[in-house]
Amino acid sequence: MSSESYEVVVIGGGPAGLSAALNLVRARRRVLVVDSNRPRHAATLLAKGFLTRDGVPPLELRRLGREDVESYDNGEVVFAEVRSVELSGSGFRVVASGVRGAADIDVVAQAVVVATGVTETMPALPSIRAYYGTQLHSCIECDAFEKADAPLALIGETDDLAERALLLTQWSDDLIVFTNGVGVIADDDERTLARLGVRVERRPIDDLTGERGVLTGVRLTDGTVIEREGGFVRPVWTPALRFVEGLDLDSDDDGYLLTDAQGRTSVPGVYAVGETTPPGPQQLIVAAGAGAVVAAAVNRDLIGLSVGLDAPVL
């Protein structure tokens, strides 16, 4: 595949990237999707809230999306991890290392769509991964319905725990927020939560407890075990964007790429979509919809219509 040329290279094979790619191949663009095949939601058994696919396994949704793109002669998907994207003449050079036995690639494109999402760092609890995706989740809108009315934990070390706790009260009136001695909840927010019956536990956590793979509680470092049947964790999310560092794209204070409303970044010809952009992690169906919006912008720009190019970057 060395030295091959594409009109668009889409980096990332999640709902945002595959939706962009599908709409672009239908616009008769020659498109390559480069997918590292390391999705953030790999541990999630079922994806909820995706119209006509409610309850589909996320990995199955990705597989179906790849098949959709490759059902068109001008669409191609490869498993590779992008190492760099550089300016090359009037376009871009994309270099990637093959994964799962795939060949390395070195291709050029007129436009690049960045849809690599984020990596996530969990609170350092030894057993947290054993329950993540089954009893513990990170997306409240996606998974709270299945946890309704159960005794829940919200575990995190960030300063937005109060907001997430308030949202969770829509589904359960038995909620404890565990800050692990790190997360910040202001006094006014704690009083608001208390009026709703939400308790804040600031003692450090030793680990989670469970039996036969089922979460039963949260064990604190002083030995106290607080019974819980499930809940939510607030990871620290970091945009996966090292491969575009040489392009000097504008980003916000958290590292997310800034774009206009159609996904155009500060470098003409480079677009960003999905969790790569503010506010970061989002429902799969939201990411897929955003992919279609960006695809329309890419196609129009390649034609030369340039609608919205003078719009300010958000």
From TrEMBL:
It comes from the Bacteria. One of its GO terms (molecular function) is thioredoxin-disulfide reductase (NADPH) activity. InterPro entries: FAD/NAD-bd_sf, FAD/NAD-binding_dom, Ferredoxin-NADP_redctase_2. The keyword Secreted does not apply. Keywords: Flavoprotein, Oxidoreductase. It catalyses: [thioredoxin]-dithiol + NADP(+) = [thioredoxin]-disulfide + NADPH + H(+). Residues 6-291 form the FAD/NAD(P)-binding domain. PANTHER family: THIOREDOXIN REDUCTASE 1-RELATED-RELATED. This is Thioredoxin reductase. It comes from Leifsonia poae.
